[in-house]
Design a protein that fits this description.
With 68 residues, the chain is mostly helical. The chain has one domain (3-57). Helices cover 69% and strands 0% of the residues. The chain is built from three helices and no strands. It has helices at 3-24, 30-46, 50-57. The longest helix has 22 residues, at 3-24. The mean pLDDT is 92.
């Protein structure tokens, strides 16, 4: 798996888990989904996400560019 695919997997898991926790445990868990969404929003403009830095340090490979 690449950094980008792991990032999508983790973000999707966090959002789904926080929504379920917000529905069944406490509504404040929905703020975690907001945090993840805002982080993804800012990373679209800055091309930087804290999780991507962590994954690269853990040795997850970057996406290889397609050859023409």
């Amino acid at each position: 798996m690449t950094v980008e695919s792991v990032l999508r997997l983790v973000a999707g898991t966090f959002v789904a888990a926080s929504v379920l926790l917000g529905m069944y445990v406490h509504p404040y868990f929905l703020w975690f989904a907001v945090f993840v969404g805002l982080n993804l929003f800012q990373s679209a403009f800055t091309n930087w996400c804290p999780l991507m830095t962590i994954l690269r340090r853990l040795g997850v490979r970057d996406c290889q560019p397609r050859q023409a």
